[in-house]
Structures are given as structure tokens and as C-alpha cells.
Amino acid sequence: MRRAGLGEGSSGHYVASGYSVHEEENDHLQEGLRNKVSALKSLSIEIGTEVKYQNKMLDDMDSDFDSTGGLLGATIGRVKQLSRGSQTKLLCYMLLFCFFVFFILYWFIKLR
User: Fold this and answer.
1) pLDDT value of residue 74
2) What DSSP letter does each residue of the chain carry, written as one string?
3) Cβ proximity of 97 and 82 under 8 Å
4) pLDDT tens readout for residues 75-107
5) Does residue 64 belong to any structural domain of this protein?
6) pTM passes above 0.70
7) Using CA atoms, how far apart are residues 45 and 110, in angstroms rounded to an integer?
8) Is residue 72 one of the residues assigned to a domain?
9) Count of structural domains within the chain
10) Residues 54/46, Cβ–Cβ less than 8 Å
11) pLDDT digits (tens, 9 = 90+) for 10-55
12) Beta carbons of 26 and 19 less than 8 angstroms apart
């Protein structure tokens, strides 16, 4: 009988030991999962911050393009008004000046 008691105790000890091993493995896996979730959380926060910054930049560019488009539209309207008159010499000078300015801007950007 004593032997059966030892066997049960030993068997119970082995069961508890196996349970402990599984608990340790679960704790280890849980810690790994916690680290991965933490990394994903920080990555998603960084992505959100970058998206907000990019949206702000796009909004700024949109307003800049709108103002430039308005200015360009007004300039083209003036050029059309000049072309209706008999001031072709002035129109040619204006076009040459525009080409000169665009050439200088192109050259300046190309050297950067």
C-alpha cells in the first residue's frame, strides 16, 4: 500500500510538474504576444502621426495651388485683354519676358 501511495504522490507530482511547465510556456508565449502587441501599437501610433502630418501638408499644398491658380487665371485674363487690342508689340515683349522668367526658374531649379 505504501508503494501505491508513493506512486500516487509521485504521479501527482509529475502532473503538477507538467502543469507547471505548461504554465511557464504559456507565460513565455503571453509575454512574447504582449511585446508584439506593444510593437504594433507603437507602430500604428507612428503611422497615425505620419498620416496627420501628410494630410496637413496636402491641405497646405491644396491652398497654395488654389491661390496660384487664381493668380494664373487673372494673368491669362490680362494677356487675353492685351491680345484683343492692337498692342502686339507689347504682347510680344510680355511673352518674351515670361519665357525669360521661366527659363531662369528652370535653370535655378536645375542647379539645386
Assistant:
1) 85
2) -HHHHHHHHHHHHHHHHHHHHHHHHHHHHHHHHHHHHHHHHHHHHHHHHHHHHHHHHHHHHHHHHHHHHHHHHHHHHHHHHHHHTT-HHHHHHHHHHHHHHHHHHHHHHHH-
3) no
4) 888 877 766 766 677 778 888 999 999 989 888
5) yes
6) no
7) 38
8) yes
9) 1
10) no
11) 444 445 566 788 899 999 999 999 999 999 999 999 999 999 999 9
12) no
Domain that holds residue 72: 14-86
Rounded distance, CA 98 to CA 105, Å?
A: 11
In a domain, 18, yes or no: yes
Distance of CA 83 to the CA centre of its chain: 47
Cell 497646405 sits on residue: 60
Phi-psi group of 85: left, alpha or beta (phi > 0 → left; psi -120 to 50 → alpha; rest → beta) = beta
Q: Is 101 within the bounds of a domain?
A: no
